[in-house]
Amino acid sequence: MRVLPCFLLLILSFVPLAPKAEVLLSVNDIQVTEDDLYHYLKEFLLPRAYESGLRKQDAIKNALVNLYVVRRGASVAISEKLVTVEEVAYRQEDGGYRVALAAFVSDRAGKALAATDWEALADERYMMEQDKLGPREQVSVQHLLIESEGRSFSELIARTLEVQAKIEAGEDFTALVLEYSDDPSAKRNEGALGYINPGQTLPEFEEMAFSLTEPGQISEPVLTSYGVHFIRFNARRGRDAIPQDAIQQRLIRAVKKERESTLKGEVLASFRGEAWPAVAGIDEAAIAERMLVRLVPES
């Protein structure tokens, strides 16, 4: 018999019994109550779709049937010993805990987010990204990519030398891009990247692109994680800083998203600290062996 944890028994002893929910469907000893329907709808419908979803013809009937199908299939699986009663009970309990955990994290993170000075964080982000947002130099380039994926090293070298020979022979670079480039966008843009900012491309690519000085100058082969690039320099220009007020809302959205993700981990960090001393001295090897016996039984 499965014994409830003591703290749950204690809690239950102080909770008045709720009125029994109305049974809406009863077939083959399987019952679906109004409470079951409520929790099902809350899980699978977005709040903005409650009214429209529930007013559709047969929406309630289909929801009740869906609940029945899950429970009917589960009861057959249990009766045929395809899954144990203990595992089903664990999944039910664990699922409930995870719903409660999500509510806890959302509450604590929401309170912290509400107290955050987003304007100040946006100011910090603007200063950190001056290489992209402040005064900067840009270069306009066109490139030809010989992709390394799917090619042996010798094949990559051979194709690189072939393209380089044609460039040195004075063949039109755009024509070579259309013939040789593995960049999926090359057929559409002929390899033109327009004006690029520092930090926008891979470091090796950027270093070469910004080192070129003469319009029409074509680089030596540049190796990156994508393969080998030939870069044609077109022009250079300076750009004024992007005013902070023009992008303030975008900066706030970005820092909010990052802060929310970080807070979810921070909210639970203290709980990990509470539990870790209790497991620090366990015999992991012995427990692992016992788990493997159960998880990978001998055939």
Please give a structural write-up.
- The protein is an alpha+beta fold and 299 residues long.
- It has three domains: 17-83, no CATH class; 116-135 and 242-266; 136-239, Chitinase A, domain 3.
- It contains 13 helices and six strands.
- The protein has helices at residues 6-14, 34-44, 50-54, 59-79, 85-114, 118-128, 130-133, 153-168, 173-180, 186-189, 203-211, 244-279, 284-295; strands at 23-27, 30-33, 136-147, 192-196, 222-224, 227-239.
- The strands form two sheets. The chain has a four-stranded antiparallel β-sheet.
- A hairpin with a 2-residue loop joins strand 5 and strand 6 (227-239).
- Helix 2 crosses helix 4.
- The chain starts with 5 loop residues before the first helix and ends with a helix.
- 10% of the residues are buried.
- The model is unreliable at 1-15 (pLDDT under 50).
Question: In a few lines, what is going on in this structure?
Answer:
This protein has 299 residues and is of the alpha+beta class. The protein is 59% helix and 14% strand. Strands 4-3-6-5 form a 4-stranded antiparallel β-sheet. A two-stranded antiparallel ribbon has the order 1-2.
